[in-house]
Structures are given as structure tokens and as C-alpha cells.
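Morning run. Coffee first, then this:
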Amino acid sequence: MDAVKSSPDLVADMFGVVGRFRRQLRRSAGRGFDSARLTESQSELLWLVGRRPGISVRAAAAELRLVPNTASTLVSKLVADGLLIRTVDETDRRACQLRLAEPTQHIVDASRAARRGLMSEVLGELDDDQIESLTKGLEVLDTMTQLLQERRA
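And here it is:
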């Protein structure tokens, strides 16, 4: 970026770079789930439960910024498909805890390991200045994510 870009150019560049990065990472490390079977929201829910086993439906909805009814519908579909297990919370019978079915957990674990391994290799090829720039860029993306969440709330 030789010159300061106008806002529309920066927005287009950001969408382009982030989109290409996500697609290339999926292609290089594998999708993890059969993309024809699952929607993006269903996949995101499974990834979240894989990271946080025992999460409640309400907490998952809040984390993914979904309306509770939408999250509940996603959970019901994934439970019916045998990908997710929903159990009644021992301390609050009105709440449910979520965990991945064993085969789903294996897919998530293998995919996460492949992605982390690939990213570690690629990060190892960057120099210190690039790592520093990436770190600062991630901080900016985190701030932008928070600003977007505040607008939606």
C-alpha cells in the first residue's frame, strides 16, 4: 500500500484479503465438516462447542450473536443428525449443556490440529517485522469486531 487509500478501497481490500485467507486456509487444511450437509451457522456452533464443551444453548447463542430461538433450532437439527449431544444441566433443569458427539469431536480435533500446524508453519516463514505487523493488525480486527458487536446490540 504505497499511498493512503480511500475508505471504499480499504473496505474492498479488507474483504478481499480476509475472504481469500479463509478460503485458502480451508483448502489447505481441509474443511473439517461436509460442507454440503451443514450451514455456516451449524458449523460455527459445532466449532464453538468443540472449544467449550458443556456450554449452554443460551451462552452459545450469545457468543455467536444468534437469537436464542435460532440457536435452539440449530441445536435440535444437529442433535437429530447425531453431531451434537444435549443434556439437561444438573444444577438448573431448565438449561441444557452441549457437547460434541464422539465422531464429531474427532473431526473437530483433527481439523483444528491441521489448521494450527499449517498456521505455525506459515508463521515460521514470516520475519519479525511481519509478525509485529500481524499482531497489530489482529488487535485492530478485534477492535473492529467489538465495534460491530456494539452496533448490533
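The chain has a mean pLDDT of 88. Good start to the day.
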